[in-house]
Design goal:
The structure is a homodimer of 284-residue chains.
Chain A: H1 3-30, H2 33-38, H3 43-62, E1 67-70, E2 96-104, H4 106-111, E3 117-124, E4 127-135, E5 140-145, E6 150-152, E7 156-157, E8 170-173, H5 183-196, E9 199-201, H6 206-214, E10 220-224, H7 228-240, E11 244-246, E12 259-263, H8 268-276
Parallel strand pairs in A: 1-2, 8-9, 8-10
Antiparallel strand pairs in A: 2-3, 3-4, 4-5, 5-6, 6-7, 10-12, 11-12
Chain lengths: 284, 284
Amino acid sequence: MKQQDFLDQVRQVGRQAALAAGALLKLNYEKPHELTMKSAIDPVTESDFAAQKTIINLIRQTFPDHGILAEEKMETEVGEGAKGRDSASQEATPTYRWVIDPLDGTVNFAHGFPMFCVSIGFEAAGVMEYGVVYEPLRDELFEAMRGGGAWLNRSKRLKVSGVDRLNEALVATGFPYDIRERLPETLERMGKVLASSQGLRRAGSAALDLAYVAAGRMDAFFEENLKPWDTAAGILLVMEAGGAVSTFTGEPYTIFSDNIASSNGVLHRDIVALLSRKRIIRSP
Amino acid sequence: MKQQDFLDQVRQVGRQAALAAGALLKLNYEKPHELTMKSAIDPVTESDFAAQKTIINLIRQTFPDHGILAEEKMETEVGEGAKGRDSASQEATPTYRWVIDPLDGTVNFAHGFPMFCVSIGFEAAGVMEYGVVYEPLRDELFEAMRGGGAWLNRSKRLKVSGVDRLNEALVATGFPYDIRERLPETLERMGKVLASSQGLRRAGSAALDLAYVAAGRMDAFFEENLKPWDTAAGILLVMEAGGAVSTFTGEPYTIFSDNIASSNGVLHRDIVALLSRKRIIRSP
């Protein structure tokens, strides 16, 4: 198969999987809460697993040999295509790999706060080639193909914002899961951003935050301690929309990095300067 | 006119005004950004003023003598009904007063972050009788009549969440406009909430945050330094949905209070304990 045909097929499958999983999440989200709470199984976990199963089954139908790196460990449930590759290990990276978060913003989903999405990235030889973030409640499909730009709902080209001064920037962030162990640093960093920007937002879905940076709805985003599936699709969206992605210290970002700083590009130097600055260690 | 007929009319006018202003905001929000930026007048201010004018004109048609307390000062633009009462002063409170925020979440609106709303409250003799928060992008109309419950889109009764443990609570907050002057206290308070709850969200619209507490999408909300029009409608929504509203120290809240703590009720004692606790003043 030609490379272009192959990537077209990747996009078809990725898009279809994101839309199918998103539709399933929306359905479960909108069920009366009293009803779902009666279920013996935790309804959130159930939705999360069902969405992942939908995605993996669709991928396996077309690409039975591709690697999969997904949030939920569920090898036994994947079906006949599973070959025990569905682990989050970094070793023996397969040439083709799908990096999947079936439900980003789980806490929001559980509480009924309407910000969550499906995130799927596709890597070839370690390079992100395609990314899709689907937000089912607003029916917004954010997609990017490496070198092909980033798009909303297949028709609107995405472009990062033009805000070029930090004090006019709207900045998104998230809190690490182990926040209780790193509260002082997290608060110090937030304090810096609060004092230097126009506003800070915390919506609770990193994949969606990155899609919003790509769409120019936010000017920058930073967070620590994310997992590969949280950022795989989003970083391609931002880059293809003209933005920038790095670590807090400005190093190249990989989906295994400890932290991420993303922006519209113009602001990147300022954001990194703010995030990377070492704490002032007072001499005793 | 009978009291009930009068309040029905208030609701009709309030609802109509919120829907009309919201439709106008949505239209302006969805205009291509490049186009609106070409306008000589700041498009955000323009939308804000146009929305307020729409609301006030509709109120004046039915209730020419009611007082108005609104975010934007624009007495000269109000039209023939205006009698110089449209100031934000607390003095000589009229018997009937409409408390209006034509666009809550201005910074979001300006940046294209899709969280903003119209908020209108109606007071009789200092008591909030009717409140409406309209979120035009999702077409969600949150309404409450004192003693009549809180409703979404006229058909779904709103009820606060049943979350009864702080460490399972999703908490909303906002940052005061003068945050740079009160950063340490703000960060300290946030740190406490981050360490004690399941998650903190910052969406950037206080009126919408309160509507979400009423709808059970968030379990609590706190913020400092809000204005009367930010909370007038939202507090009635929360109370009519079974929740609680007070100051940080647990005192009765009025729309002129310096800070607000709101919750599903069950959590209120815990939230207030967290917010009111004095800083430890270290002896020199």
